[in-house]
Amino acid sequence: MAGISLRGIAKSFRDTPVLQGVSLDIAAGEFLTLVGPSGCGKTTILRILAGLETQDAGDVVIGGTLVDDLPPKARDIAMVFQSYALYPYMTVAENIGLPLEMRRLSAAQRLPLVGRIMPGAATTRAGIAADVTAVAEGLGIGHLLARRPAQLSGGQRQRVALARAMVRRPKAFLMDEPLSNLDAKMRVQARTEISELHRSLGTTFVYVTHDQAEAMTMSDRVAVMMGGRLMQVASPQVIYDDPQDLAVATFIGTPEINTLPARIEADGGLSVLGARWPVAVTTPAGAQATVAVRPEVLLPAGRGEAAIRIAGTVRHVEMLGAETLVHLRVAGAEKPVVARVEPAVGARFRPGDEAAFTVAPGRVMVFAADGR
Ligand code: ATP
């Protein structure tokens, strides 16, 4: 188990900056997820951590050791890829045992690095077989050891890849979208399994995904990346409830957070769609702003006076089983405003109806023109 630090990491590919001064401290035993849109640089960070790519500037420290000049093997961290990278002609047992087998062979040839690279794991044939069986059984694939990858389901292949990473007892796991080849149902199940695995191993996990639900459900902390920079690093709840800027607020949450254009009046008050909203703002007067409201904080308006009302015409009612999304066309808003309500509440709305929702002032986020 080891903490990981990235210090001012920069990387360009053919003069195009891909990472721009990324600094991040990951605690020993933490589950940290890098999340962000495609191409924002997540995989490049993992590859730099693993030693598969060299940064142009900055340092990587793993377990207190500067590893910039160490090759991937000597970093003692395991990487699980999206593709699983299993060898098709080997059995499951051989695939899982491969890292230990390679170490055994190089030990037999008395290669000098060996003892340092993977301390603690088995070095004899019998020891390797016992380790492989124990890890496979722990992951529920003990009965599949004689099969080849082609004879496995996607979920089983993913577990074989995990087992192969675990058998080395690495200091940390790096996982690059390991669930993206699974169907939606399997993905949800695998999320739970990976969380349990993390809890039982207590090892540092650095996980990459563009799926924010994965990031939110499994992680101790989430690092939101955009355009090669870290936008916010915090617990899933803080990222959701208190995003540092509009881009993070919009990226996290499904359906997407509702946004409406707003203006800060001369007296410092907030005007939204021509109405005053009693929300405290720090943005200077005269400035354009954006208010943002999560779909679940919109409540159907009752008869009484409400401090904040959003009214419009129901455009679409989307029944999802456990919840219903009411899409409201609101004059002055670019996109429909979406409310997430209980099915019994949603059943009251029909397309074409006039409808109004209220929001508690404390649930309104205000972002200045620069998104902050
Ligand atoms: P995704 O979610 O799509 O995997 P990502 O956030 O992991 O994206 P990276 O794979 O880190 O993004 O890539 C970041 C950027 O760097 C992309 O624009 C990509 O095209 C570019 N890139 C990555 N590797 C190379 C390379 N070896 N040569 C040139 N450009 C590269």
From TrEMBL:
It is a peripheral membrane protein. One of its GO terms (cellular component) is ATP-binding cassette (ABC) transporter complex, substrate-binding subunit-containing. Its main location: membrane. One of its GO terms (biological process) is carbohydrate transport. SUPFAM superfamilies: MOP-like, P-loop containing nucleoside triphosphate hydrolases. One of its GO terms (molecular function) is ATP binding. It comes from the Bacteria. It is found in: Cell inner membrane. The keyword Disulfide bond does not apply. Residues 4-252 form the ABC transporter domain. This is Glycerol-3-phosphate ABC transporter ATP-binding protein. It comes from Phreatobacter cathodiphilus.
